[in-house]
Amino acid sequence: MIQQVTRGIKISVRTNFQGTYLKNYKKHFAFSYRIIIENQSNDSVQLTSRFWRIKDALSKNEVIEGEGVIGKKPVIKPGESHTYSSGCLITSPFGSMSGYYNMVNFTSTRKFKVLIPSFKLSAPFAIN
């Protein structure tokens, strides 16, 4: 599990290879990831949007931006956490993802970014 803390918000990521699929007559490798966002600060925060950079060993990078995560903008109180799962398709058995969440501190009303640590996507059969 990969972990990183930014301004009292701990991000933990675990990935899994889900298999290969044909999409538009091209082989893709499917990965799922589970993220735990834990509020270790003294203030309630809300996740408002996300930014992802997906790197594929064989093709160009892809950038994903949008509101919330999986249709939600969770409010996370001190000592609480929010967990969600999602996934991606890439065209090689190796890749990586990184990014950040935009958040709002409810006490100060200040916006801030929480870094998502870079994590690898790798199919087990392709590991040396």
Automatic annotation (TrEMBL):
Protein name: Co2+/Mg2+ efflux protein ApaG
Domain ApaG: 3-128
